[in-house]
Hints:
Elements: E1 24-26, E2 37-41, E3 52-56, H1 72-79, E4 82-87, H2 111-127, E5 134-139, H3 141-152, E6 159-163, H4 174-181, H5 189-197, E7 208-214, H6 223-236, E8 244-248, E9 251-257, E10 263-270, E11 277-279, E12 295-297, H7 302-310, E13 322-326, E14 333-337, E15 345-346, E16 352-356, E17 362-370, E18 379-393, E19 405-411, E20 430-436, E21 443-445, H8 451-455, E22 462-469, E23 477-481, E24 488-494
Parallel strand pairs: 3-4, 3-5, 5-6, 6-7, 7-10, 11-12
Antiparallel strand pairs: 1-2, 2-4, 8-9, 9-10, 13-24, 14-15, 14-17, 16-17, 16-23, 17-22, 18-21, 18-23, 18-24, 19-20, 19-22
Helix pairs in contact: 5-6
Amino acid sequence: MTVLGFLILAAVGRAPAAAAASITEVTGFGTNPGNLRMFRYLPPGIGSGRPLVVALHGCTQSAQAYDDEPGWVELAQRWGFALLLPQQQSANNSSSCFNWFQTSDTARGAGEPLSIKQMVDRMVADQSSDTSRIFVTGLSAGGAMTAVMLATYPELFAGGAVVAGLPYRCASTLVEAFSCQSPGVNLTPSQWGAKVRAASAYSGLRPKVSIWHGASDSTVAYSNLNELMEQWTDVAGADQTVDLSDTVNGYPHNVYRTPDGRDAVETYSITGMSHGQPVYPGTGSQNCGTAAPYILSIGICAAGEIGRFWGLDNAGTPPPPSTTFAGVESEDGYVKAAADGSGATVGTSADLAIGRGVDGKENRALLSFDTGAIPDGASITRAWLTVRYAGGSGNPWADPTGNRLVVDVKTGCFDECATDAGDWSSASTAAASAAIAAFSMGSVSSTDFSPTGVAAINRSGRTQLRVRFERNPGSTAYRFLRSGPEITLSVTYAAAR
Length: 497
């Protein structure tokens, strides 16, 4: 891959990092020939057999800039689907664009498409995702890479959505890429379709495709909407005659159908909009998204309309009821002691230490939650802890080899509800009820609590958790965690009958 990158799509600005979503990084998902990173968001209580949406960010963006802002996290919670967020690395492309035009990254079985396919496989393995309801979407360079994924792995996806993007194999060199972006490349539908058909030996039903473009886009020419429509109608066996023409929230919307009446392609022409993805902030059923650079508040939420086109609003049984409790910051803290527990004292740093510090002491974090709001008679079915990285040094999971960061659960408080020295070794109700995988950034969630850990959650007041390494690190290696509202305990439950 070239570090020249595709700078001509670098107009997509860096949106603020999302704070509301708890996206977590997943490693070890395959050979990863495209050298991408994998992030995911799982709504509380999602369970197995749910749909999966793959969302691809634009240039200079990241997974965290393309989760809450376009509305995908909100919709995942509303409709109950898992969200996969691949992330480009600057080592591959200096503007963090997906390399949508390089031949090494637009072919089946190679480069970035294979990395993304391996991420999908990992999600299916971990979540038992419904393989008949996997979808892919993206903005700008991510939209162009969406077309790549639909062309190279059509059997994987039930649908796709290209926002301010480009047709598959519109370019194969940097010079061609400039021309493709603006003024655009004009081919016949059959010529465009041939490029997709050559990408795989697939002969089955093609994914349905939603195409969005700002009519005033000066970064990626508006003409690309028509070229994309021609490509994907031709591939689906539809003609280019509009079968349904209407307006949605005042914006022109066309639908193209196959001869047997199946919706193959829809297009949205967003009049007056420049380069970006439209959102419609608010609390109504048609609202979603938050305005940010190149995430444009313009009275229609693309993610919501795309999800409806895919059928996600009727995605089956919704997730079970859930509650998320923020930490009680005034009671959170950490305790340090010698390896045998002697000389325990309460730590004084603002963030919460775990692992072995530079002073040679072993640190354990104490987290407090008021869990009395669980409905009377409800049966808790699942619980997990989410923590947020604040700093660290070394790798305490590797010294000793196979070390685990575990979560002890206490019904009520360990010693006193406010952190004190006795909390380092005070008995728990459920020891090592959950574990947290190695992390060095962002937020990460634990495994589900064990049955004894779930049973230990206090329905009438405080539940405290102690986060500690199962074995004391042999040398300086630690993490700092945020406290209070940046640490959450989530539970799902079955309502009383």
